[in-house]
Amino acid sequence: MQEIKDRAASLAGLALERDAIFLYDALAKIEKDPARRSAFERIATSERRHAAIWEAKLLSLGESVPAAPRPSWRVRQITLLARLFGTRAVSDMVKALEGYEEEVYGAHGDVPEVSDIAADEAKHADIWRELDAGKTSENGAREGSHRAALVETKAREPWHRAGNSGTLRATIFGVSDGLVSNAALVMGIAGATTATGQGGFVVLAGVAGLLAGAFSMAAGEYVSMRSQTELLERQIELERAELEATPEEEEREIAAMYHARGFPDEEALAIAKRLMADPAIALETLVREELGLDPEELGSPWGAAIGSFVAFAIGALIPLLPFVVLSGNMALLGSIAVTALALFSVGAAVSLLTGKSAIYTGLRQLGIGAAAAAITYAVGSLIGVNV
User: Fold this and answer.
1) What is the C-alpha separation between 255 and 251, in angstroms, rounded?
2) Which parts of 129-283 are beta strand (E)?
3) Which domains occur in the chain, in start order?
């Protein structure tokens, strides 16, 4: 029985590591920032070592090592998105994939090799935390000297910031909101008007629902983002005022930060003094470390509003289109078909963020949307009959 479990763990682990090797090799090729590219290459090397462990385990069990299959659907999609939007845009997805690895390994925790690999995976999590915090140097001890280079890199390569504020996440969920809400509305109106033959009401109601929902989403997102941005800007201004009023105290705070990370007192003070020589860099350091903010990543209220409007409108348009180009029962059946396909696709896309099975999240989204549409259709039919 243990041998069967060891074999299953080895095959599952090997598949995971081969996916990780493909992904991190691809990220390293895509990444323009040398420090981030080096980090991805280090993780890829670690994953190759893990794959070798599982291959050796299979051989020790008398099993042959299977040929490397095509990467999983999730890994291929993440790689495609990284090519389109940059590696920062897919960081949440990659971390979700790392979390999925932990779940799989957790199920085989009694296999000796798992504990060794888990220790390496913890180091990967540390690397990602450094990447998210903007500490892209190969050695944390070089952080102070690389800060100016980081600022220069951001200015030269603004596309790296495309996904930092969750743009892909917001887009996926915006499309989902538009799809479910307008599908329910369209089905409700269709149920009420099918018997009377007044199918034009479906289009009218669908367009009204699309516009009302999209403008509501955009307005809500703008107000929310504007308020958040103003609050963060206020915090940054307070930090700037403190830096101007009490520079000696702020220098001691910076030194204390580096001392807390393990730097000797003299080295921490030297780093703080170098950073304080440039007030802009000193302010950025304090904002990042004390407030946990990136002053260049506060978000755009207008960008968030427009993005929410477009995402919701795209989702809301899908169940409506068949009623524009078809009529009668064909329009209804066409709307059901394209809506079901879109619901499953959006659910599968959510799996890129959550690390869950694409089939599971796709069917879950399909079930939720279908339930909402079926209820509103039934209610609409009852209303239509009574009217």
Assistant:
1) 6
2) none
3) 2-61+69-135+144-161 (1.20.1260), 165-387 (no CATH)
